[in-house]
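Rotation project, supervised by the postdoc (A.L.). Task for the rotation student: set up a whole-complex structure prediction and record inputs and outputs verbatim in this book. Inputs entered:
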Amino acid sequence: MSGDESGPGTARSRHTGRRPGNADTRTAILDAARARFAGAGFDKTSIRAVAADAEVDPALVHHYFGTKQQLFAAAVEFPVDPELFLRAIDAAPLDQLGVALVRGAVTVWDSPAGPGVVATVRRMLAGEPNLVRSFLLQVVLERVRTRIATDEDDGRWRVSLVATQMMGILIARKVLELEPLASMPLPAVVAAVGPTVQRYLTGDIDQSVD
Amino acid sequence: MSGDESGPGTARSRHTGRRPGNADTRTAILDAARARFAGAGFDKTSIRAVAADAEVDPALVHHYFGTKQQLFAAAVEFPVDPELFLRAIDAAPLDQLGVALVRGAVTVWDSPAGPGVVATVRRMLAGEPNLVRSFLLQVVLERVRTRIATDEDDGRWRVSLVATQMMGILIARKVLELEPLASMPLPAVVAAVGPTVQRYLTGDIDQSVD
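Outputs recorded:
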């Protein structure tokens, strides 16, 4: 390895576990983050703990990677910032949330970033389901849950049902490439699956069916 | 490595092409079946072709493994005979098919055979999605499709939607172990998800929702 690829103004001298180059420091932070997120989950991992594991200052972690959520995305090599997707969810009216979730997610999966997302999810499913669970429960679904929670219903069962349907679309459309689903245009997928997700979010899900 | 761990009565003489022992013949048949099913899919794989690849008589394949479907199950190390599940599907009235599918599948996944099913699906998703696709489309979903097909609608889009929901439950409940879904008793899962699957099978799925 060439030990120093630092550009002008980016050289940093480190000691004890010396990491002279940016690339090495970044790698150390990402390794530490991946281990923490996999072991403790998203919520219980702090930037401070990751920084300590990587033997760097917490400010440097923020400087390189931004928020904890962005650090997570970088650690699992997620090719898009989940925040962009989540803002669209925040903006959708409650009675359109199902459609917004399906449209938003499938749009990302069908985009040029899609293969990277799919590869990340497949890799995590095969080797680190903890990371998928943590990301889903504590980042994505939590953000949706706060939209639907009421005094009588905290929404946890509802968002886990949403997760089944969204995860299933991802697997069937992008991993298995099941036809005709894999080639079905976005509006048809949204029309078919949006009502399912909306019912899970705000509809009657406890009624016995037989 | 110690080259010979054969116990009494298991010694086998091996040479080019000859397969004198049951275990070796079975292994050769399963290897050939796995390669054929992965390459050509379930429909286009014949017992005759598998037998030819394994250099045995087709009757021997039937003798060891039964039907093509049972050979498939053995080749992917599926721990239950899918036929048992599929017969329950055949027996359900059309307006109860959604509930029957969810109840039947989740019952198998929650059973002692469940971990084996989950391990098989995870392995195939990671390495051989062709095998999952082929099994789903040509065995399970085809059997469901013939129940719902009409002159106007061949049911292919409908059963691919069913596949998304069922696959998603499997992944979220048994691989990710997302709570509260993972601990939710079977009747609650059936009550929540049965109507989704029933709508995909026989309901209105083309109506635009916005």
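Student's summary: The two ends of chain A are 65 Å apart (CA to CA).
Supervisor addendum: Residues 1-20 of chain A have pLDDT under 50 and may be disordered.
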